[in-house]
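Intended use. Records like the one below are meant for learning the mapping from a protein sequence to its folded structure. Do not use them to infer anything beyond what is encoded.
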Amino acid sequence: MKDLKLHWLDKTPTQAAGVSWGVPWKKGILNREDPLALVGPSGKKISLQSWPLAYWPDGSVKWTGHAAVMQEYSKGAYTLNIDDNKRVEHPLRVRESDEKIEVNTGPLQCNINKSGHSILNNLVVNENMLGTKGKLISIREERNERSEEGTIYRHERLEGKINAVEIEQTGPIRAVIKITGVHVNETKEWLPFVLRMYFYYASPEIKMVHTFIYDGDPRYDFVKGLGIEFQTNIQGEPWNRIVRFLCEEGIYSEPGQLVWTRTYGKADGLYEKQISGEPVNVTEHPTLKDHVQGNAVWNDFKIVQDSSFHYKVRKRTEENCAWLDAVHGSKAKGLMYAGGSNGGIAVGLKNFWEKNPSALEINQFTKEMPTMMVWFWSPEGEAMDLRHYSNDTHVCSAYEGFDEMRSTPHGVANTSEVNLRGFSKAPVNEELLRLGEDWQNPTLLLCESKYYHSTYALGTWSLPDYEDPFKAALETQLEAAFSFYKQEVEQRSWYGYWNYGDVMHTYDSTRHQWLYDEGGFAWQNTELVPNIWLWYAFLRTGRKDIFEMAEAMTRHTSEVDRYHIGEYAGLGSRHNVIHWGCGCKEARISMASLHKYYYFLTTDERTRDLLADVRDVDYATMELDPMRAFYPSENGVTHTRVGPDWSAFCSNWLSEWERTENTTYKEKIETGIDNLKNTPNRLLSGPVFEYDARSSNLYHIGDGTPGGYHMVIAFGAPQVWMEAAELLEDDEWKEMLAEFGEFYLLTDEEKRKRSKGKITDKMFDWPMFAAGMAAYAASQKQDDNLAQKVWQLLLKVEYSHIPLPIEKETIKTWKTLNEIPWVTTNTISQWCLNVIVALELIGDTAPEADLQKSIIHQKSITK
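Structure written out for the chain above:
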């Protein structure tokens, strides 16, 4: 392999920073001992740290992770080669003792404690101590209902206590430190946390990835505030201490004390210098100094994003005085700098306005060791209300799954990203603007789409073809579907700490609103795998806007829609008004295939943990049988549908096998496949089986059992099984997949004949969902007639439920809206996913002319 080209996502970053990314490799190309070198656009090697992320069955490397610090940015291409790496002259250093871990990047040194409450100590940048006593904090709100007096609120502060600290990675360029613990005070312990800190050599920045897990009782334990605080060593007179906030377009600055006075006005330009962040000397003007010192001293500043369309900057002099509103705006960029004569610190919270209510704050600014705070959930907002929306279930009317009330947030999580950078001298505004832009936008190196496609490392998907008129027309429809959802996120304000990243399930064209209040029709929660659709859409195009939507969906669905502790650990909650509200707790919501794309492309360690955490989720069926409404469980043997339950287990096992080479998980997949091979109708048997997690065996209990064959193929099973088929090199398994895809499209008479009367057409709903499996069958069998049937499924509205072309309507109701009256995310997700797969498998078999005409007359997008 020579000169593997890499490029930046969207645009070139604005300044030097550490970058981590993943690269796939074709089977047999990269050996474990092969060195890798990164070459910049100038032709010079750039120091690189590399490590394996996954392996092929033959032992060659499937995915590698990389880290580098780019001192110079260029629009030209970078290349990755199998070659000797350039060594780092002054590598990052990590030293561990019984009490602490010391990190030295060159310009930055800090200590991470291994016990107690103070996590980050002695933050030094260029020999200037800027910060210390970094702590995680939460504020608990307890509500006591009083019928006559109203509700009484009591707030208590808790601080993060360190339970364990681990050096997850250390090398010459990048180090990752993982801290786990829980928030405590004298009387209570709650909210477990995971905090990762990322360091890069020659960089004064720290990236932090923070996860908290809710373990309270939602009736009594309301989270009023959640964040990180640390003390800052800001020095200088009050008028030479400046707080700067990155707002919509530029910087808003406020000093601790204004040099403007009614007598001296702008004081010969000193005021302009002060507001721009430059130090000013008022001692040369004794009278001016007296007047300046007579001005109010402002000690507390904050920027609060209280909704997706509003923020405010506020300040006050002392705790017992009123807050003043300085400015209001729409969408702040989530960066604050606070500094004095000795430099200062900038902090940034990613997705600041998207994941509101959030805030950045500094208190006691003009005093010794001011406290800086990053609020993931600002105390200025209402406390988190994680209770269910109803005291009843609404199964019959609102499709809520089971009559059981299993709505609980106990065990759900949320992850946020924070950046921190120390400055030994005050930065100019342009530097902060660039910093904020980079912190809010993914700084990521990517391979070309053609290269991703050629490695076969992420399943079966197609590259866009804009030359063929029919395929170009299909690309137009795929683009229309994505652009609609991109617009809906903004149009419907699908934002907020607990909602950002998810989309809704079913549209109500009468109210011109999604069914946000109808049980099983509200939030999507990975139903019919929109995650995989978006990641395939990104892989084939490399577009930043698709990446950002897929990233947000991954962060949300992998944390909020699944459980991380408690009785449902590893399982997820199906679609509902409340993300955790559905009584169905299932493995398909949390399966690895939904999230592994993000891990492999970014190397994100939090996502890696989530992939590992579900490897044994099949054992959860011993406590909560997915088919408990239909069958009793005995002696630890429960029930599972071949899809979406067992297919989700396969997804998790495949992920564990390829990442760790633990063949136990490969054998689990093979055990189930062997069980299916020995049933009367192979993969078509069931679809419900008895299942024993201890042995991984599926036990045949009959064919045509309740469970629905459309459930087998609508939740990512085809993508999991096609990928597994290539890895296992099992020809019979490939034959079984093709058999299933073909069978779905048979007539009732043919189905009865082949299954000896056991399986009938009434058991097969939503044939469009099977288009991917049927395309696989057509490809394996080289059957053009079957390929034509697949195109009918995708292009005829009576099968697809997608009227083509996909077009929005503008309507005036409670406001002017663009809507698609018939839209459901289930059908859009499956249609787009199956089109992408079909173009790969049967793209050379063009549909009949009349089918092509249905979309070809529409204006097609061009490359």
